[in-house]
Design brief:
With 123 residues, the protein is an all-alpha fold. The protein is 88% helix and 0% strand. Helix 2 packs antiparallel against helix 3.
Length: 123
């Protein structure tokens, strides 16, 4: 039984490796679960329930890492959408500014034309 337990515990501890994670947040989070898994194996008596605890801890780690990864994906999507909105708003603002300038020039041209006509009539 003892050999089986150690093999099962060693197998479970391999599932808590985190060196392959390149994202610092995911690596740090996974590392915390790994430390806890090793602490459980080092401090608790061998037994089937410890293996169950490790399995459930692994499920919790997987869920937490997935949650953070999804949040980061959502943040990236939101950031891209914000960039697109900013670009669209800037384009609309540019178009609006351009329209305002053209309108001002049209008004100015009309006023100058009227003034020119009035001056011609008076001179």
């Amino acid at each position: 039984m003892s050999g089986d337990f150690h093999a099962a515990a060693a197998h479970m501890l391999r599932l808590f490796k985190y060196d392959h994670l390149t994202d610092p947040k995911l690596r740090s989070l996974s590392q915390q679960f790994s430390l806890l898994a090793h602490e459980l194996v080092d401090t608790l008596s061998p037994g089937a329930e410890l293996i169950v605890a490790l399995r459930r801890l692994k499920e919790s780690k997987d869920a937490a890492v997935q949650h953070v990864a999804l949040l980061q994906d959502d943040e990236q999507i939101a950031s891209k959408q914000d960039d697109e909105r900013t670009a669209t708003a800037a384009e609309e603002s540019h178009t609006s500014d351009k329209d305002a300038v053209l309108g001002f020039l049209d008004t100015g041209t009309a006023l100058l034309s009227s003034l020119s006509n009035a001056l011609r009539r008076t001179w």
